[in-house]
Each structure stands twice: as C-alpha cells, then as structure tokens.
Amino acid sequence: MVPPPSSNNQAIQQFLSSVLSQHGTSALPYSEDTKWLIRQHLLSLTTTSPSLEPKTATFTHNDGRTVNLLQADGTVPITFISATYNIPVIIWLIESYPRHPPCVYVNPTRDMIIKRSHPFVNPSGLVSIPYLQDWIYPSSNLVDLARELSSVFGRDPPLFSQRPKPNPNPNYHPNQSSLGSVGNTGGGGGYPRPIVRPAQYPPYGSGGAVGKVEAEDAAEVHKRNVINKLVENVHGDMLQFSKTREAEMESWFRAQSVLRGREEEFNKGLKEMRDKMEGLELHLQVVLMNTDVLEAWVRENKGKLKGGSEDIDVDNAFECVDVLSKQMLECTAVDMAIEDAVYSLEKAVQEGAMPFDQYLRNVRLLSREQFFNRATAAKVRAAQMQAQVAGMAARAPRYAT
C-alpha cells in the first residue's frame, strides 16, 4: 500500500494515521503503545528527507514468514569527491521497532552493483552501521539514522555503476521482467533479505524525460478542470477527516493517562488495605493469647470460692502470679495512697485546720516517697513487657494458622 503520490505533508500524515489505526487482520504488527511514536518518527524523516517515502509492503523472514510492515523507500544523498549522488535504500520498520533498530538495505538499480568487502554492507545489501548496532530506545530515531547513512556512505559508497551488457534477445523488454528474490548471504545479524522489486531510479545527473506536447480540445480541458476540482474537494474532505481522527486519538491518549493514574491509586489503596488486614490479624492473635491466659486463670481459681461473697477478704481476693506482679501491685497501691493523702492535706489547708508550713513539709516527704515508688513501677512494667513479648514469641506458632 502506497500513500497518495503527493509531497504534501498532510497526505503523508493521513496515510500514516490510516494504516496505524487499522485493527483486526489488516492491522500492522506494532504494539499499540508505540504506534504514535512510529508515526512521529516517519513524519520527522519525511520532513528532513523528502526523498524517503513511507509505504507498506510485504517482508519475508528467514523462516519463510511474511508480514506486512512499514518501510521508508527512497534515496539518501551523499557527497563523494565533491559530487552529490543518491544511494537507493529501504528502511524496514520491523515488528519490535522502535525498541529495536530497523532493518536497512541498499536497493541497487539494474545498472548498479554492491561493492565487494564493504565494511558496513554485506553482499545481500544489508546495512550494519554503528548507529544501528548502538540503537538506544527511545532516543534513537530515523532522522539521525538517515544522516548517519549519508555520512558513512559518503566516506565509502556501497554501490557503483556497471556498464550495461548487450542484450542477446532483441525481443526482451525491461518491463516484462519477473519479480526476483535475493537471499541473505552475509552476516546480517539475523535479519532476512526482503523480497522486493528493485526500485527504478533515474541515472545520476539526469534531468528526466521530456514529454511530447499534444493538442487538446476544449472538451478535454473542461474535463481535466472538473477532475482537478473533484480531487481538490476530496483532498479537503480527507484533511478534515484526518484532523478529526487526530483529535479523537489525542482524547483517547488522555483517557488512557487518566486510567493509568486511577490504576495506580487503586493499587495503592489495595496495598493499604492489605497492610491494615495484616495489622488486624496480629491484633487478633494477641487477643486470642490473652483470652487463653484469662481462661486458664479462671479454670485454676474456679474452686477457690467456697463461701459467700461476705466471707471474701478483699486484700486476699487476688494473688500475684510472680514477684514482679506483687511488686507492681505494692508500688501502685502506695502511689494511689499518697495521692489520696495529698488531696486530704490540700483540703485541710483550705479549711485552716493545718498550718501552711506543715503542709509543705508533709507534701515534700510524700512526694519523695511517691517518686521512688513510681520509678520502681516503671522498671517493673518494663520487665513485665519484656517477659510478655518473650511469652508471645513462644506461643506464636500455636496461633499461626
């Protein structure tokens, strides 16, 4: 498939938008997230190198597979010995482009042959310049590739002309030649040689053929003007349709960006929920362990109450399980008793039952004793916490499931 025969950049844009937006069996084998970049690469190439025209053609791999790919077909200018020449090339955008470099071939005409032992072109025409070997995605592009081809081929042209041999068959006509295929016979880096018809390019320096002018009548002139008008109208409609499709593609890209942002937010929220669930599971394990301890204590002390509630001694109702618990209980009782004593002293001073200097002396003594009890309670609490953590670690395998 070839775009309309026009050098207008709008026509090339319409062609690329059309072939890259196709879906189904006719879609080109490029990933959706790179099609926009491929389009931009080809538009930039045709802007800087108008002689390279984007097309679609059939590419044949070494294993016999055929696939429809984009190509840039044309010439790259070189300067050799103060003269300007055009080297015919074909730049194939393979399926993994632009993450991998394109496949470049020189495409000699019938009066050209490939130079033997060229450092960057093998006998099948496959090009392997350093820019292709050092291809880096996404900085590498087709514009810099075309410039590098012109520079490398200008130092050492890969093609040169050969004298035409006499034709032994007088009935032979060049337009009746069959489509030929050229095999990959050199170190092509694993790339196949495509089956293409050699492009026909004018000889270097030729000015083109001069057409014969024929007289035209008024009817022919009117017919041609009508056709040109219709072509202009169709071209305008096509440009309008292309602008509409480009605007739709931009909106789709914006929607895709919004959806990706929402996906990130969803994944973040899901991670937070999972973290909370893990925290709740750990808390549940602690509650289950505490419940087990309380149930064990109830079972051990269930038969200790034989009389009624009036026979219960409050001071002996609870027994400390260890020395730390007993010490903690004593320190807490002293602390709370001192709090009550200080409160009573404040009431006595307010009512005038105690001199103020005596109040200060008693409060100082009580505060000193309260400080030591609280410091002891803090040390005991730290020791109990360490013992509890060790006990939880020992019981953790029991509640792991």
TrEMBL record:
Region (Disordered): 156-198
Pfam families in alphabetical order: UEV (PF05743), Vps23_core (PF09454)
Cytoplasm listed as a keyword: no
Every UEV domain range: 19-163
Biased amino acid composition, Low complexity: 172-182
Domain SB: 322-390
Keyword Flavoprotein: no
GO biological process: endosome to lysosome transport; protein transport
Stated name of the protein: Protein ELC-like
Gene Ontology cellular-component annotations: ESCRT I complex
Gene Ontology molecular functions: ubiquitin binding
Organism: Populus tomentosa
